[in-house]
Amino acid sequence: MRLEIEILTAHQRTRETYGTKRWYRDLTDHGVQIIPYRVRTLRKKLNLYCKQKRKFKVTTDSKHHLPFAPNILKRGFAVSEPVKAWVSDITCIPTEEGWLYLAGIKDLFNGELVGYAMSERMATSLIIQALYRATDRKLPEKGLILHSASMAANIAHVITRKY
Predict the structure, then answer these.
(1) So what's the pLDDT on residue 102?
(2) 53 partner at 20 to 30 Å CA-CA among 70, 123, 143, 154?
């Protein structure tokens, strides 16, 4: 009974991600005297399994017919003044509740994160929210360049015309 409690505790402590071998090492590190075979049989008895890694989810759709803004920056990432050139990207973060999408906008001058937004969906509104936060904080003047490979095409046109 004590071993079953130790196994259940180890299962929760390791965020349900360890297999038999890693559990064995974890349990022995915590002072539990047990052999790997016993760990395996108790896991089966308690019906405990480790979580499987999630498959990589492709989120980029490059085959679209939407217009796109020209590449004004042309890999010129050395900027002499703040709020002259920004770059942005979106990343997806696996969580217990599903995917979380994070859009960030960074100033090339000093690497400062000037705006970000998070959402459960990767939609144009995520990018717009990050851009609004960045422009509210920094109040850019006309001539700002925002470079992004993941930026939605219509947003890139708005930015090119407005700033």
Answers:
(1) 93
(2) 123
User: Closest Cα partner for 4 from 42, 35, 40?
Assistant: 42
Q: What is the mean pLDDT of residues 33-40?
A: 89
Contact assessment for residue 14 and residue 24, using Cβ atoms and an 8 Å cutoff: no
Whether 67 is in a domain gets the answer: no
Total number of domains constituting the chain: 2
pLDDT value for 150: 60
**Does any domain span residue 10?**
yes
- Ramachandran angles phi, psi of 102, nearest 5°: -125, 120
Task: Tally Cβ neighbours within 10 Å of residue 156.
Answer: 19
Residues 37 and 93 in one domain: no
pLDDT tens track for 97-145: 888 999 999 999 999 999 999 999 888 788 889 989 999 998 888 888 8
CATH number at residue 123: 3.30.420
CA distance 85 to 140: 10
Q: Is residue 58 part of a domain?
A: no
In a domain, 90, yes or no: yes
According to DSSP, the residues that pair with 92 across neighbouring strands are: 101
Cβ contacts of 92-99, under 8 Å, gap ≥ 24: 92/57, 92/59, 92/122, 94/54, 99/57
Torsion (CA) 151, 152, 157, 162 in degrees, nearest 10: -60
